[in-house]
Write a structure and sequence with these properties.
Elements lengths: L16 E3 L2 E4 L11 E8 L17 E3 L9 E4 L12 E4 L4 E7 L3 E7 L4 E7 L1 H5 L2 H13 L7 E4 L9 E3 H9 L8 E3 L4 E4 L1 H11 L7 E3 L14 H4 L6 E6 L6
Parallel strand pairs: 4-7, 5-6, 10-14
Antiparallel strand pairs: 1-2, 2-3, 3-15, 6-9, 7-15, 8-9, 8-10, 11-13, 12-13
The chain binds zinc ion.
The site of zinc ion (ZN) has 6 residues, from loops.
Length: 255
């Protein structure tokens, strides 16, 4: 991981829609093509709505979710319709009958797809998971489980707290410095022993360093904290914050 990467992420502007009674957006990268089907669902229009995925958002098949724990464990889903919802922070499948879902309220949802193989994965990347290299684990998981090559992967980084708003302490800097990414170039000083961190930038750089093509990577310009009228944000709302849902189904292989 010592190779220098000259890459600067340029997030794409978001067009807001309403789906299933929630503010919603999609990545232009996957908007007009066959293959992976995705949705980013934010704050319900009606106050007090439940934290769960709206059932109508699952157009077909089954929904797989996790007991997220800010780690790097990734589970493969498929075959049986049974799903226990184990502890972990990543899901993958090559079964178009499954929709994968992660919930966030500032952490970064990362969606990966190999359209040619009909493979999809979702990752929950807060600072802990990012510092532990969950994107590298995700790429290795897709290689070992499905034979995916990094150059065949498409990546979308969804709504999360942005580099405008994410203030952290020294312990976060040290975790990134000592972790597998060994990259603190995205930290900006912000007062004594405080830093501003850009989770999308650092995860994007890690994906590029691991072999994902820059033109197959897209990040949404949607800071959960700045856009708290449409998205849930732990930083903005505290423990009462609801959850945004990032959903991805692989679809059938695209030839
Ligand atoms: Zn912000």
């Amino acid at each position: 991981m010592s190779r220098c990467v000259e890459f600067s992420l340029q997030p794409v502007a978001v067009t807001w829609e309403v789906h299933h009674g929630r503010h919603a957006c999609r990545a232009p990268l996957w908007r007009h093509r066959t293959g992976p089907e995705h949705q980013f669902l934010g704050r319900p229009l009606a106050p007090g709505a439940a934290r769960e995925v709206p059932p109508q958002a699952i157009r077909k098949g089954h929904l797989a979710t996790l007991r997220q724990e800010h780690g790097t464990c990734i589970h493969r889903v498929g075959g049986t319709s049974e799903w226990s919802g184990p502890a972990g922070d990543g899901l993958s499948t090559s079964d178009p009958g499954w929709t994968l879902g992660v919930q966030t309220a500032d952490c970064l949802p990362i969606l990966l797809a190999d359209p040619g193989r009909g493979v999809a994965a979702v990752l929950h990347a807060g600072w802990r998971g990012s510092a532990q290299g969950i994107v590298l684990k995700g790429i290795e998981h897709l290689r070992s489980e499905y034979g995916c090559r990094p150059t065949d992967l498409e990546a979308v980084l969804g709504p999360g707290v942005g580099g405008c708003c994410y203030e952290v302490g020294d312990e976060v800097l040290e975790a990134f410095r000592n972790g597998p990414l060994a990259d603190v170039s995205h930290f900006r000083p912000h007062g004594a022993a405080h830093w501003i961190i850009d989770l999308a930038q650092t995860n994007a750089r890690a994906l590029i360093r691991a072999g994902v093509s820059p033109h197959k990577l897209q990040a949404l310009d949607a800071c959960t904290c700045c856009t708290n009228d449409r998205l849930h944000s732990y930083r903005a709302e505290g423990t009462s914050a609801g959850r945004n849902w990032s959903l991805l189904s692989p679809g059938h292989p695209v030839v």
